[in-house]
Amino acid sequence: MPPPGRSNEAEEVALIARSRRDLLLRAHRYRLRWEDLEDCYSQATLELLARALRGARFASRAHIENALEQRFLSRIHDRRRALAGRSPMHAALETAMSIGGAEDEQIEVVDVRAELERLVMLRHELRRLQVLAEQLTVDQRLVLAAQLGQMSRSEFCRRFGWSAEKYRKVAQRARARLRSLMSAEDQHVPPCARPSERVPGTHL
User: Fold this and answer.
1) Burial class, 18, CB count within 10 angstroms (exposed 0-12 / middle 13-18 / buried 19+)
2) How far is CA 125 from the centre of its chain?
3) Per-residue DSSP letters for the chain?
4) pLDDT digits over 140-190, tens only?
5) Whole-angstrom Cα distance, residue 130 to residue 95?
6) Per-residue pLDDT averaged across 79-89, rounded?
7) 170 neighbors 139 (Cβ within 8 angstroms)
């Protein structure tokens, strides 16, 4: 057991830490998440209690309050540096997010390593599909839109009064027609207006 003087000092530190907890957590709530702030405050309190048990003396209650807040701020700064990249593990955990949510919860995972050229080509293909889809029939566009929207076949047929066979045939013809249009567009090369009459060389 610690000597009576040290025990009294540690008890005073514990009482002040308990009374100041809510105030200091609210005052610095903008610095970290609430659970991180609680963790930092607990560390600061334990450090100050250990210091008191080792024989540290405090001049007054205000001295203990200032020492506690300084240690609290020091732990906050340490945690912020860790989250900013000093500790790769802390930084990874801070930016991580779960992809195992509820069934109706969809999380889009973005590949930050994807090349810009590939992204541009994919967007170009989407614009081509949008233009070419205008050449399909109304029923064909309706079926493809429902499939892109992940509407089930049974729900589609119930909503629009179609049979399952009609749904299958229209969807099949829509996909085949769209593939045919894309293939024809790829093979089409605009003819040159007129051949060049210039002789290869340095003519301007």
Assistant:
1) exposed
2) 26
3) ---HHHHHHHHHHHHHHHHHHHHHHHHTTTTS-HHHHHHHHHHHHHHHHHHHHTT---SSHHHHHHHHHHHHHHHHHHHHHIIIIISHHHHHHHH---S---TT---PPP-TT--HHHHHHHHHHHHHHHHHGGGS-HHHHHHHHHHHTT--HHHHHHHHT--HHHHHHHHHHHHHHHHHHHHHHHH--PPPSS---SPSSS--
4) 888 878 877 677 888 889 888 889 898 888 888 888 887 888 777 666 555
5) 35
6) 71
7) yes
Task: Locate 18 and state its tokens.
Answer: 């308990």
Pick the CATH number of 116-187 from 2.60.120, 1.10.443, 1.20.120, 1.10.10: 1.10.10
Residue 38 has a pLDDT of 92
pLDDT computed for residue 195 by the predictor: 53
Question: Can you tell me the distance from the alpha carbon of 23 to that of 13, in angstroms, rounded to the nearest whole number?
Answer: 16
Tokens representing 153 are 């076949």
| CA separation for the pair 130, 141 (Å, rounded) | 10
| pLDDT single digits (tens) 6-37 | 668 889 999 999 999 999 999 988 888 888 89
* Domain coordinates in residue numbering, the chain: 4-94, 116-187
pTM > 0.85: no
